[in-house]
Amino acid sequence: MKESKINPTTITDLPDDCLVLIFKCLSDEQDREAFGLTCSKWLMIQNRNRQSLQFNCSFTCSRWLCPSKPPRRIDSHDLNRALTRFQHLRSLSLSGCTELPDSALQVLQHFGASLRALHLDCCFEITDTGLSLVASGCPYLKFISLYRCNVTDVGLEYLTKSCLGLEDANLTYCSNITDHGIRSLVQNCVHLRGIRISNCRGIMGVGFHGCSRSLAYLEAESCRLEAEGIATMAGLEYLNISNLSWMIRKNGLLAFGEGFARMLRVLNMRLCRYVRDEDVAAVAKGCPSLVEWNLAFCPEIRVLGWKSIALNCHNLERLHVNKCRNLCDRGLEALKNGCAKLSVLYMNGCPQVSTIAIELFRLSRGDVIKQEEKLTVGPDWQPWLEQRIFME
């Protein structure tokens, strides 16, 4: 009798489920690309399981991924071909595609249903028409970034009436957005967690009236917010109002003393040059949950302001006082005797603080004083966002 031939089992004989598990274990982008080059079956696995895509021109694209390829112009054909291949994307970045027209987003009508995050940063040719295509093609978006886009309240209204599940919106430098657009955003998208409106001078804050208590994160650097607007956001945990003068000059910060910000944990007031002792006292009394407070470059805060922080901020762990020229020995002594949980004091450029006062502080509180200056403060939003986009 002839012995039957035994066909050896190879890795190509693995079932699709096993190949998918192998692909998902590859964290390196180059390894994932090599996976798809093995054979047509493995290429299909790669195409079907790829969750994010960013083009070579994207600002989010790491240089080491494509060091020899200079950024290129992305057109409608490129986008259509990519989305035809990767039909189950959850995150798409077109950031830096400065000449991409509205018409290119037509392809989202067919392949946008699985998208949860869309980055359109600096897509200068995208207008309200393009945003209407996003609205109809990507109804399940949770995050959208429109940094420096030329969209208006009309486009934002299109988006928010369709994408009701939005949880985070980046409108930084969207100069054509006003309170009307913000009102549409907060009233239609009741699950909002974060909004970025920095350098949007047309937003005064009244559009936030009636916003959901789920809103916890607001970036509003260099804005012209009114106190009435901020006072409606009772659930805020992080607030950036750095480089703000409009509200301060109109005694707007006194509204913090009314108790609407009792949940606030991180407050960035860097470069608020006109903030006074009474403003600081109102915030200190009205924000008992503060863990981090940035008051760098606030030169008008004097002894009474520092004393109010020491007396009222019982949960404060990190305080930034860089370049506070009116922080003196008495103010530092008040901070030493109060703020029991203070573990880091970022301090430099304070000419009225003596070496003796600093040594006394260190003897009493340990090595708390740090000479460095932090330009950004607050929570790392990215891990939470990725969890919502990729792990739901």
Structure explained in plain terms:
The protein has helices at residues 16-24, 29-36, 40-49, 76-85, 108-111, 128-137, 153-162, 179-188, 227-230, 246-249, 277-286, 303-312, 329-337, 355-365, 381-390, and strands at residues 52-54, 91-93, 117-119, 143-145, 168-170, 194-196, 217-219, 238-240, 266-268, 292-294, 318-320, 344-346, 369-370. With 392 residues, it is of the alpha/beta class. The protein folds into two domains: 50-55 and 73-235, Leucine-rich repeat, LRR (right-handed beta-alpha superhelix) (Alpha-Beta Horseshoe); 237-374, Ribonuclease Inhibitor (Leucine-rich repeat, LRR (right-handed beta-alpha superhelix)), CATH 3.80.10.10. The protein has a 13-stranded parallel sheet, with helices on one face. β5, α8 and β6 form a beta-alpha-beta unit.
Question: What's the helix and strand layout?
Answer:
Elements: H1 16-24, H2 29-36, H3 40-49, E1 52-54, H4 76-85, E2 91-93, H5 108-111, E3 117-119, H6 128-137, E4 143-145, H7 153-162, E5 168-170, H8 179-188, E6 194-196, E7 217-219, H9 227-230, E8 238-240, H10 246-249, E9 266-268, H11 277-286, E10 292-294, H12 303-312, E11 318-320, H13 329-337, E12 344-346, H14 355-365, E13 369-370, H15 381-390
Parallel strand pairs: 1-2, 2-3, 3-4, 4-5, 5-6, 6-7, 7-8, 8-9, 9-10, 10-11, 11-12, 12-13
Helix pairs in contact: 1-3, 2-3, 6-7, 7-8, 11-12, 12-13, 13-14
